[in-house]
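Because showing beats explaining, we let one protein speak, sequence and backbone structure tokens together, and leave readers to judge.
___
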Amino acid sequence: MEMVRVSFIVGVDCQRCKRHKIKCSGSQPCCDTCRKRKLNRVIDDRAQKVLVTRGYIEDLQRKVALLERSEELPSPQTFSDDFDRPGSRDTAGPFEGTEWEQAEHNPEITNPLSTVYLGTSSNWSFARKVLSMIHEHLYDSPLPTDRRHFDETAYELGWDGLRTSMSSEAPMIPTLDFSIHLLNVVKFHVGQLFHIFDEPSFMEGLYAYHENPVHQTSVDPLWYIQYLLLLAFGKAFSVQRGLSSQPAGCEFFVKALQLLPDLTHLYQYPMIATEILCCVALYLQSLDFRSSAYGFIGQAVRISLASGMHTNMPIDHLGGEALQRRRRIWWTVYILDRQMTSFMGLPQSIEDNQIYHELPLFPESPHKVTALSMQIKMCQIIADVNRTVYGVDGRLNKKFLSSTKTALGNTANF
């Protein structure tokens, strides 16, 4: 029988000397540095080197192989679970350069078996990796699942998204004066960057609603949905959140989602429908509902493309006001889609060489044209970075250094 000889190599550096990158004397029970500072000497046993025989290692390898082989033998119940589980084939293994987050031990997740895909260019994925590296460096353990803050866990909407659980009660609508105040708040915070409602037509409906709410809601239900969304934004911007897990004005947003019709109806009214979808996507993105926001802005992209908003629209058929409104809508959709796609680390859905680049006019605010052109330029840089710097599945290509240099140069010139 082969004897096992295990010998320890003394003189291992303590953790403090390693952390400060200084030479450790290795003396027992405390090194010179720890003795001077009257600290206890702490040694990481895992980093301590040992000498064992080859037979000892072969025996351990044999035991591990037998254990793994026994775990790989499936039972009939295992087979049925694998086939019944949705998406089991798609989540069989990780992709190189990408990140799959699985919340198996988080009780707050509705479906603990669902996975979240984090693309290579996602700042979400980057933040996870940095936090994990810092946590492992400080605590020598992986980042716990409950501290990763999965999608849709920062805030609560108070609704599970099912039409069967809708509430028939409508939220308390504020007075006309307070509604106008909330609209001005939205214009100040959002209107400088994005177009989410047409002020002349919306104000006309606002006065009509406060004269006869039932009639205006039945005549123009999409206007009422947009009104609820703008109230949700205004409340969120002007009311302090407090200790509640729901943002202020959330009840208006939930009611708007419950009343939102199907795409078959939205396609009949492309302008206000696209404005509504942009509102929903922007609100969800602000609440860290990234996947849901990406889905809604994708619907806005499809409606705007199907309506020809990305083309040189004829002014003779549409009229000047409608043309300018469509251009404002299109560039809002374009910017939000580029940003949210980059947040998710996914391929871009709009090619710059296939769209018409005429900007809308802002006679009352000429500075908005400059701000809009800057946003469009930044979105184009984002698309170039995603297309040239990041390779398939996060792998580096031969042009990585030159592509990175070009992207940095374009950003500096911007």
The radius of gyration is 29 Å. The first strand starts at residue 7 and ends at 8.
